[in-house]
Amino acid sequence: MKKIIFSCVFILIALFCVFLFLEFEFLKKYNHENLFSFIFLNYNLSRFFMCLLCGFLLAFSSLILRIVMQNPLASDTTLGVAPSASFTILIATLFFPDFLNISKVLMGFLGAFLILFLIFIFMLKKHLNSTSIILLGLISGMVFGALNSLLILFYPEESKSFLLFNSGYFTQNGFKDIIELFCYSSIALISLYFFIPYLKILNLGDELASSVGQNIFYVKFFALCLSAYFITLVVSFVGVISFLGLFASIFVKFFKIKKLRKEFLICGFLGFFLLFGVDLFLQILQITKGIDLPTGGVLALIGSPLFIFGVFKMLKENFSDDGIYIFSYFKEKYIILGLILLVLMLFFLNLYFDFSTLSFKNISDEILALRLNKLVILLLCGILLALVGFILQRLSFNPMASPEMLGINSGTSLGVLFALYFSLEYIQIFAIIGALLVLCFLFFLSTKLNINIQKIILIGIAIMFFVDALGKIFLASGDFKAYTFLAYTQAGLINIDKNLSLFLLIYTGIFLSTLYILYPNLKIFSLGENCALSVGLNVVKVKIVFLILSAFACALSALCIGPFSFVGLLAPHIMRLLGIKKFYNQLFVAALLGICLMFLAYFVSKIVLFPYEIPLGVIATLLGGIYLLFMMKKY
Question: Superkingdom, according to UniProt (predicted)?
Fold first, then answer.
């Protein structure tokens, strides 16, 4: 352990010396004697102390969460604490600017503590395992991320400063902020020092802690308050620094430290080493190449592979394989007839409803044509996403599999991001390649490395974090293309290419025709891989064909309406709740439900905050996130 710590310190000192040399050489050309010392004392030294404080606070918070949740991957990022604190701080920035210095810490703490307390209560009542807790936290983070994007799109000018701040730049802090942050955190750090013995007992397990007379609920409640407060302070002063605390809490376990106070100290230093090391590297990059990147965004890029490593090495439990309870009240033909009538009703409601007067009036032919084009696209995308979700759940034998949960939509978004910056003409090709790369990677994990689908879902969410981090870095740059990408993630690029709807229609026909031809294979495969192999079905080829079809469907749908979340997850789930048992009827009902969800989201997006239109992606994420929170009790 001493050798590792010595190596880390040596690398950090060497990097710091290189930085000082480059900084001095860079400033020599200005021929000012005191310029270097002035910048070093007022800029570089302040960044050092800010990294020191933030590294320790985030490491402490994640270590506390690991002990309280009894979960090796619990942290501010994986439990959705930082996004919730960021959301409430954005509310303070937009609506309470006069009291921002006071209200941002208070509102950030309310958001952070609320999500932690809800997850804790949910965990106690439902007895969730480690994997389910992480999934619950990540879903919560997705919901708050969607709310953040919604406010940013509604208030683009007012939120520009917040975007820069929230991306994790350390250029915005001086010694005044350091003193203020130290004063805010000092009492909490002293409280943590005297609270560590209680955490030490809690670390041995809930049963042993109860046997020695410790009130587990109150101890965990106070620990959650401390952790939420530490996270809020960092988010309030420097923005979201993703995965830093997770890194420190994971790697401190490899030291096998017996004393908890010593473990906290080493964990804090690990957080500081990583944060300051990355920040130094970015400062060197800025001096040598002129590239200015946010520290928080870069750490999120580094942290996504780290999260995948943690999923492989740290999580041992699986989800329960129990499916959703099926309730059958009506005959399937009546359910199908009712869904067809619902689709027609929603179609004509969206087509002829006058949203400006909230009534039915004569609509001009031009508006009807535009609406009809959008509704046809939504109909086709609803069919494709619902059937892709159904196929993925059948192939993986897991009801949580869907395009967004497996990272396929994120792969498409990554392709779109590259196309926006390099070649907009080939945006469809880039999007399809991105989706295929993610699917091939997940297919390799599941077949060659025998990684179970539960861990693959978490890996898919890690891919989402990676793409989100890239988006934040580009948003912080202020480039208008980054705002185009943000708009795409919430509402697609439906107006970029008028021929895209025709291409989507043609591919939907190809998709349905191929699905009709391969329908017997999918039906056999749904009985289980062993059964499929016993009748001579080539399981690998069937998987490859369906995965390629799914990748193209997800890419085209995402280009039209954005990486629309949870339709591929909700439609098969609701279909099972309706009690549909015949395999062919399941496909048909899932497609109808996908259309209903699309039309319903479109109507809600226009009418809730009229005259403003909420992006479809936000509505889908909110509805899907709320549904998933209820579904967690099944696992």
Answer: Bacteria
